[in-house]
Amino acid sequence: MRIKNLSVQSLTIPFKQSFAHASAVRAKTESVLVTVTDDAGVVGLGEGCPRSYVTGETVASIERFVELHRDQWVGFTGIDDMRAWIGEHDAVIDKNPAGWCAVETAVLDLLGKRAGQSIEALLDLPPLAGTFQYSAVLGTEDLGSFKKQLQRYLAAGFTDFKVKVTGRLQDDIDKLQQVAEAGHSNIQVRLDANNLWSNTESVLAYVKQLPGRITAIEEPLKVGDYDGCRRLKQELNIPIILDESFLRVEQFAELSEGASSWIINIRISKMGGLLRSLAVAQRAKEVGIPIIIGAQVGETSILTRVALTVANRYRDILLAQEGAFGTLLLERDLCEPPLMFGAAGRLDANVLSGGAGLGVILGDVL
Q: With 0-12 CB in 10 A as exposed, 13-18 as middle and 19+ as buried, what is 73?
């Protein structure tokens, strides 16, 4: 096999409703689609979601990244070539994780199709099986919209919730009160602050006024404030979820003490693709840190599919899964049918086509 062509394009799909958190408000996707084609005409697809406030990337920077390295990637003839390139270019991928994620995913999809294997078989991983349970995600909408969204989730059977906080105390109290008053004793709530506060005292004063039982808080402080997060864990007695503050396996050095203080949110795009995500999950398992498989807002079924590989392999340390919104959020998806959760937030592995590579079918949407 030899790659004949590798292209990248901006992927802009409107949302059915805007989605807001402390760092951004989005009404459409901000993603790239990479397409690779081999000399036999077999096509592989990959997706990346650049976020300037997470990895410093933009759609334009990914396009430049692809232009700079395309000739090297076109020379890949198999997975060993790709692994070798990753090993030699760690620092480059660190600066372009979403860009590399799109390229790596497309190449894995192509290699799997060429070999007649799923990406799991290609990587000697367990085949996808069983059911995957997703969390409800509640954004920073006004109270009326929040309440309607909450009721829809509850009616659908969700019990695991991620709630975005705003820094507007009364708004957050009112929203969390709605969740607390839902009357379900088995509801789990974790907060996502998106680096809202600059010091631990502000977080403590704020969170202690919030109603209901909170099981964890994600990125309460500025990116990389591990010491501050340790203090918060001690004071609040709940673990801290690291998202923007954890992008690569080398950052485990910052978590050398107190594994019980942490949960790592693994989002495939920000980690730099599937192989680096698997490496992070493996190290997390070795040191006793649980994980969440997260998602960038606006991911299509391509990234949803790749994330299943990690969730499936590391179910024993998986606390929650996010994403798989498909056309519940997007006006259209790249894949037909879209890969998305159903009743009670569950997605059955049987919905996949069972085909080679990613095993998803591209729709006529571009």
A: buried
DSSP three-state, residue 18:
strand
DSSP strand pairing (346-348 vs 131-133): antiparallel
- Tell me the sheet residues that pair with 160: 188
Q: What is the pLDDT of residues 154-199, one digit of tens each?
A: 999 999 999 999 999 999 999 999 999 987 778 999 999 999 999 9
For residue 12, how many C-alpha atoms fall within 13 Å in the half-sphere facing its CB? 4
Compute and round to an integer the Cα radius of gyration of the chain. Answer: 20
The answer to whether residues 46 and 302 touch, using CB atoms and an 8 Å cutoff, is yes
Question: Which tokens hold the place of 14?
Answer: 């409107």
Q: Which CATH superfamily is domain 131-351 in?
A: Enolase-like C-terminal domain (3.20.20.120)
Query: Which pTM does this prediction carry?
Result: 0.95
**Does residue 240 contact residue 262 with C-beta atoms inside 8 Å?**
yes
Please say whether the structural domain 3-117 has been given the CATH code 3.40.50.720: no
Q: Where are the domains of the chain?
A: 3-117, 131-351
